[in-house]
Amino acid sequence: MDRSKLRIFLLSSIYTSGKFLQKNLFSKKSFSKTILPAISAISAFGIFVDLSHAFPKRTSSLISESPKEVIDQVWQIVYRDFLDSTGRYNSNEWIELRKKVLSAKYVDSIDSHEAIRGMLASLEDPYTRFLDPKEFKEMRIDTSGELTGVGIQLSLDKNTNNLVVISPIEGTPAFEAGVKSRDIIVSIDGKATKGMTIENAVKLIRGKKGTEVTLGLLRAGKIIKIEIIRDKIEIHAVNSKLNKISSDLKIGYIRLKQFNANSVREMRNAINKLEREKALGYVLDLRSNPGGLLEASIEISRFWINEGVIVSTETKDGIKDVRRANGNALTTKPIVVLVDGGSASASEILSGAIQDNKRGILVGQKTFGKGLVQSVRALSDGSGLTVTIAKYLTPNGRDIHRNGIEPDFQSIMSEKDLLNFTRKDLATRKDKQYVDAETELLKLIKITSLNSTYKPDKSNLNYALK
Question: Is 340 annotated as catalytic?
Fold first, then answer.
């Protein structure tokens, strides 16, 4: 939901500084065109597919030095696999750029890493980014289900150049401190963020466990300051519970917060448990879920969809890989999916598959619109690269990148709804979107009357229908 308190995390790259000057790589015109414009929304998780590729062989005496070898590895990966979603990539210019970067001299890895960031900036793809060894290690921890920092996902508004919170991850320090979706970060420990890149913001926000960072946030026209204690935590991807509407009516509620290495196992366990508890239908909550691993989204989709296409991915060469259900769905009970503006990437794969296969309905607000697949590549010096290699399409062929998915039933949380709303209010009467989802689920399972009494802190379909 665009204004909700349901949350997420951060990361990305682009800067040029230090000894490696921009004039070594780009003309003044080219630099102003490719480096200065604001980057559109960036997801730390997005859709990742972890592939193993042999490193490119040395093809020239220019890359006999180790720093240059890493530069050329990045160059060749982009040249071979990069999918251009903007129409601005020119292979001939990329070939010329290789000559320039490999002809320059680099004192150490810091210089070469700056050169790589400069190269990637020319692609104007915020999802194709270089990670130094420390950042690469942290990203791998993130997708494994652990997180170090405060737990925020950022984007850079392309119109205002403001750093905007997409959402904090539920249960993280930022979430507990009260950071909200759509907050604008105007300062970090007193340092103004105007014109700051996401990478530099990440460096300021992250730090040692137990240390404090103060964020200045612009919210509803007012600037507030929030102090957050950094921490390292394990993110449990799934929360679930059985909402008893009456003695003979039980609704399964599952909240999926991200698609990490633990999410498939946790989702399987949650569905099986709720099936044993005789749930008659399900509300699957994907609000503010930023995405994650591609394979996780496919496997989880198969838990809900017994047959049909789940997603297709298309490479720059037009090669399509179609992924289908495998006939092993864990349940065929009715399902309603909750989505919002923070539901991105893998969340959109799952949502689109359920919607297009008419397996269930979507309730909430239009999703984020991130339909690109990144491959994570390890480089020879311990650094890494995430490179956009494909786009994904829903079963009906919808390309949702930048467009998002419209819900079947729109439901919005007002400022009044959000007043004093906390995590414990999820899937209760205070959660208007959940109430709407429950009402739609009632229609799906064709229940027309219940004899239960309304309780303020419990789910109750009679109350929802009044």
Answer: no
Count CB atoms within 10 A of the CB of residue 110. Answer: 15
**Predicted TM-score of the model (pTM):** 0.72
Tokens of 314: 């298309």
H runs (alpha helix) in 239-326? 263-276, 294-304
Instruction: Write down the pLDDT at residue 233.
Output: 63
Of 13, 155, 288, 345, the catalytic one is 345
3-state secondary structure 2-43: CCCCCCCCCCCCCCCCCCCCHHHCCCHHHHHHHCCCCCCCCC
Q: Is 345 assigned a catalytic role?
A: yes
Amino acid 376 reads: V
Length of the chain: 466
Strand partners, 254: 240, 284
| Tokens coding 126 | 């915020």
Count of alpha carbons within 13 angstroms of residue 370, beta-carbon side: 31
Average pLDDT rounded to a whole number, residues 331-358: 95
pLDDT of residue 449: 42
- The DSSP 8-state label assigned to residue 66 in this structure reads H
- Binned at pLDDT 50, 70 and 90, residue 422 comes out as confident
From the candidates 5, 68, 333, 370, which is the catalytic residue?
Answer: 370
Q: What kind and span of H or E run contains 164? A: strand 163-168
pLDDT in tens, 427-459: 999 999 999 999 999 999 874 344 344 444 444
CB 215 within 8 A of CB 190: no
Of the candidates 6, 15, 262, 7, which has an alpha carbon nearest to the alpha carbon of residue 142?
Answer: 262
Q: Mark whether 64 is an active-site residue.
A: no
The band of 20, judged by pLDDT with boundaries at 50, 70 and 90, is very low
What does the pLDDT read at residue 378? 94
Q: Which of 125, 132, 285, 356 is catalytic?
A: 356
Asked if 164 and 183 count as a contact pair (C-beta separation under 8 A), the reply is yes
Alpha-carbon span 389 to 356, nearest angstrom: 24
pLDDT score of 6: 34
H-run or E-run covering 95:
helix 91-103
**Alpha carbons 209 and 244: distance in angstroms, whole number:** 40
Mean pLDDT of the chain: 81
Tokens (6 digits) for 457: 């802190």
Region 419-423 average pLDDT: 80
Q: What is the pLDDT of residue 44?
A: 38
Domains and CATH numbers, the chain: 238-369+404-465 (3.90.226.10)
How far does Cα 247 stand from its chain's mean position? 39
